[in-house]
Amino acid sequence: MAKRIAIVGYGNWASAIAKVVGENVHKYSEFETTVAMWVKPKMFNGRLLTDIINEDHQNPMYLPNVMLPSNVIAYSCLKDTVKDANILIFVTAHQMVQDVCAQIKGHVHEEAVGISLIKGMVTQSDGTANPISKEISSHLNIDISVLMGANIANDIAAGGFAEATVGCIHPEHGEMFQRMFDSENFRINVVRDVYTVELCGALKNIVACAVGFAEGLGLGSNAKAALIRLGMHEMIKFIETFYPGSDLKTFFESCGLADLIATCEKGRNSRVCKAFVASDKAMHEVEAEELNGQSAQGPPTASEIYGMLRQVGLEESFPIFTIVHRICTRQVPASDLKRCLQNHHLHQTVQSKEDCSSNSSGVSA
């Protein structure tokens, strides 16, 4: 029996991925050709957004000037969207995950599998934070994989080339997800390092905030490059500290370095944080002005990560993650970023002979 696909989300990235999946399902008989998409009831120019998507095959609120495949069908009822679905694609703001899971619990097919495209963490009552995939899986009792990468939604929707990384434990699921997403202009690699793939997608948004602050402060390209380099170090260190066992190669997949660069260069987090520097408003107010109803995931992720660091006394071991949170919450001025950069513990280091495991060409001896 062909598998029914449901997309839980309606924003910019959800609409772009609906275009990708809606086009791909025609290539394989294992998928139903109709793709369900949950769209929260919203009005746009006097019409329900669900009606616009189903009749005009566009999402002008979140992905204007892009035609969606006619086989993508919008539903305003979340439970109707996921009913009988064999594959669930989660693409909401990460702040919505718990509420979404609560609504659909008990309404998900018992043999369904899911894949999360959501970048962020979910704070727990004890101050810790869960990866999104773990949160969804614990609520719905289904297997959850992840897809992350250097994926600017508008570029993908316009047919530009991109690549992404799927983190998936089960090879048969990984092969299915590759067929579901992969195309000539959207290449998919599958790895088993699920948490590393997912956490790279969350943590890079914090670094992008730092780059946005740097742009707002006029610190220049060299400073932004330094923030990206140091931020990558903190990403690797954080994952190895809290989720040990990662494969270093995963950081050089699309979910890692490539996504970090793309997000810092052209993403909503850097844009909002740049505007924040010039404003006296709270971050959520700047976000509302800049993003037309979309969310910047960097500031709340920075808060969640800071909570984890503070719980174990590691705030000063992750200076960029920590300063981003403090700037976002106006505990310190954005100008403190420069001092953080100047005094980062990874500067003024000298490699010892014992630490050197490669020759001058960089190839292991």
Summarize the structure in words.
Its EC number is 1.1.1.8. It is an enzyme of class 1 (oxidoreductase). GO terms for molecular function: glycerol-3-phosphate dehydrogenase (NAD+) activity; NAD binding; protein homodimerization activity. It catalyses: sn-glycerol 3-phosphate + NAD(+) = dihydroxyacetone phosphate + NADH + H(+). This protein has 365 residues and is an alpha/beta fold. It has two domains: 3-192, Rossmann fold; 196-348, N-(1-d-carboxylethyl)-l-norvaline Dehydrogenase, domain 2, CATH 1.10.1040.10. The protein has 15 helices and twelve strands. It has helices at 12-24, 49-56, 78-82, 97-104, 132-140, 153-157, 171-181, 194-217, 221-242, 254-265, 268-277, 283-291, 298-311, 319-328, 336-342; strands at 3-8, 31-38, 43-44, 47-48, 72-75, 87-90, 113-116, 121-123, 129-131, 143-148, 162-167, 186-191. The strands form three sheets. The protein has an eight-stranded mixed beta sheet, sandwiched between helices. The chain has a two-stranded antiparallel ribbon with strand order 3-4. Helix 11 (268-277) crosses helix 12 (283-291). The longest helix has 24 residues, at 194-217. The radius of gyration is 21 Å and the shape is globular. The termini are far apart. Residues 358-365 have low confidence and may be disordered.
